[in-house]
Design a protein that fits this description.
This protein is of the alpha/beta class and 478 residues long. The chain has one domain (3-475): Alpha-Beta Complex (Amidase signature (AS) enzymes). It contains 15 helices and 12 strands. The protein has an 8-stranded mixed sheet with strand order 5-7-6-11-12-10-8-9, sandwiched between helices. A two-stranded parallel sheet has the order 1-2. Helix 4 links the parallel strand 1 (66-70) and strand 2. The longest helix has 21 residues, at 346-366. It starts with a helix and ends in a 17-residue tail after the last helix.
């Protein structure tokens, strides 16, 4: 099998030809490793050299299919630096529950992908790894924090890669790279510590090129974790069966303005307008709408609750590695966030939690009227390299940096981390400038079924599988 032939397939397709005996798992591994060797020098999506691992489940649904893991998803023997010089050289001592479930599908893990420092930033740029670049335009970022994973999938290196999302870190990179990125409902998939901690913003899943791959992996990954305080009802049937299933006539709310002071970029405005028209053409009832949310108040609560764990986490890691917390070990903005977090008081976090409870109620009330809510996945398309560099010199404070990145780029995604609702960036639109525009689809809590039905309907009506970035393994002839 040639590399470009391998790269044409999604994970479900590769699993099918493996089961038929048309190709072997070793041939697929060889293709993936050749793609990494060819594409990584330009795109910089790998966190270290490839580390091919054995197949754990020879009868799993994806037995032999190559995959990459986001740096930070603990897999015994793989790097666990999480994009930081503070933790450079660390390796995971054991698998997380999420990785154990991935391994049970039979995937062949080939190594780790880049992420910004501790997954904090919405671009994948770090002093440790440098800048990961967008396969659609090398001057642009793939977003973050799952930037390396999204690049590897977009560039045809692997069909899927593990990702995580604490404020848009699956959906933002999917928006930037033209991939499908689903953040499941809170409690659907395991996270690193089982329940997400005091503020359970983080959600784990995979980035894929097709809706069916995301659904098929969700079938294998979902389910409660012992001791977790969050769970959602199990699906009525396998998620993969929702792909291509009739949607019925849905009531869809569309938001065509940014919740932040920054107006939508022309490409994102046109993208959401075209998406709304397509939904109408497919027979759905579409009208403008959004939950009643004081966005500035909510984001003002989100920032401190996002960084509140930094003092204990960074001080623990400093003791573990014997390295001090300094500009030599941390990004400038991480060090500033650490100092800011030390000033937080318990009442700051109590107020934030009360704010989030109010928001969850508001969004649930909204979904009593609507079946789905669509909007752009970003205020703008993929940012330029350096636009949100967390170690850029200058006088911009950490808070100003955080507000600028939210206002100008990622205003649409954190709300669903706060509420826990399922949300996906669907690569429906290609801008006239060559950069993708993702359309975010949000549904009721626990209702990935409707989301996957609608996303697959959009995929069939306006396919994106034929769009190939200029920097892709599909152009290789080896």
């Amino acid at each position: 099998m040639k590399v470009y032939e391998y790269s044409r397939h999604d994970a479900v397709g590769l699993a099918q030809i493996l089961r038929r005996g048309d190709v072997t798992a070793d041939e697929l591994q060889s293709c993936a490793l050749k793609a990494i060797e060819a594409m990584n020098p330009t795109l910089n999506f790998m966190s270290g050299a490839p580390v091919p691992m054995p197949i754990n489940a020879v009868t799993g649904p994806f037995s032999g299919v190559p995959i990459l893991l986001k740096e930070g998803h603990a897999c015994a023997g793989l790097p666990l630096a999480q994009g930081s010089r503070l933790t450079a050289g660390l390796k995971a001592p054991q698998d997380s529950e999420f990785v154990r479930r991935l391994k049970a599908t039979g995937v062949r893990i080939l190594g780790s992908t880049t992420a910004p420092e501790f997954g904090i930033y919405n671009v994948t740029e770090s002093k440790l790894h440098g800048a990961t670049r967008n396969p659609w335009n090398l001057d642009h970022s793939p977003g973050g924090s799952s930037g390396g994973s999204s690049v590897a999938v977009s560039a045809g290196v692997v069909p899927v890669a593990s990702s995580s999302d604490g404020g848009g870190s699956i959906r933002g990179p999917a928006h930037c790279t033209g991939t499908f990125g689903l953040k499941p409902s809170r409690g659907r998939n395991p996270t690193s510590n089982g329940d997400g901690g005091l503020f359970p913003f983080a959600h784990f899943h995979v980035t894929s090129r097709s809706v069916r791959d995301s659904a098929a992996f969700l079938d294998s990954l979902h389910g409660p974790v012992l001791g977790s305080r969050y769970s959602v009802p199990p699906p009525a049937r396998p998620f993969l069966e929702e792909v291509g299933a009739p949607t019925g006539k849905l009531r869809i709310a569309v938001t065509v303005t940014s919740p932040s002071p920054t107006a939508l970029s022309p490409e994102c405005l046109k993208g959401i307008s075209d998406a709304a028209k397509l939904c109408e053409q497919l027979g759905h009832h579409v009208e403008e709408g959004a939950p009643i949310v004081d966005w500035s108040k909510v984001m003002g609560a989100f920032i401190p609750s996002w960084i509140c764990v930094l003092p204990s986490a960074l001080e623990t890691l400093s003791k573990l590695t014997g390295r001090p917390l300094s500009p030599d070990t941390l990004e400038i903005k991480t060090l500033e966030a650490y100092e800011l977090a030390k000033q937080l008081k318990p009442e700051d976090l109590f107020r934030a939690d009360a704010c989030f409870q109010e928001v969850r109620r508001s969004v649930d009330v909204f979904f009593q009227k609507y079946d789905a809510w669509i909007m752009p996945s970003g205020v703008s398309q993929a940012p330029l390299i350096g636009q949100f560099d967390p170690s850029a010199p200058g006088t911009e404070s950490n808070l100003d940096y955080g507000w600028r990145s939210l206002n100008d780029y990622s205003a649409f995604t954190p709300l669903q981390n706060i509420t826990g609702h399922p949300a996906a960036s669907v690569p429906l639109i290609q801008g006239s400038n060559g950069l993708p525009v993702g359309i975010q689809v949000v549904t009721r809590m626990g209702d990935e079924a409707t989301l996957l039905r609608l996303a697959s309907q959009l995929e069939m009506a306006h396919p994106w599988s034929g769009r190939i970035p200029p920097n892709s393994a599909l152009h290789l002839r080896q």
